[in-house]
Amino acid sequence: MKLIKGLLIFTISILIVFMIALMDSFIGVLIILILGVVIIALLSQDNTL
Predict the structure, then answer these.
(1) Cα–Cα dist 28/47, whole Å
(2) pLDDT averages per 10-residue partition of the chain, 49 residues
(3) Does residue 4 contact residue 37 with C-beta atoms inside 8 Å?
(4) d(Cα 4, Cα 23) in Å, to the nearest integer?
(5) Cα 24-30-35 angle, rounded to 5 deg
(6) What's 24's DSSP letter?
(7) pLDDT given for residue 39 in this prediction
(8) What predicted TM-score, i.e. pTM, was given to this entire model?
(9) Domain range spanning residue 34?
(10) Neighbour tally for 2: CB within 10 Å
(11) Where are the beta strands (DSSP E) in 1-49?
């Protein structure tokens, strides 16, 4: 269940990033990096729990 939840969050984040990237590619790349770190942090917390 945690894995499925992580995949859903990851998929939604990618969709949002693509929408933002269409507006400004540079800001989109920064957001991709930020979301990547946040997702990894969330998955790490789920694994420890």
Answers:
(1) 28
(2) 78 78 72 80 71
(3) no
(4) 30
(5) 120
(6) -
(7) 78
(8) 0.42
(9) 2-48
(10) 11
(11) none
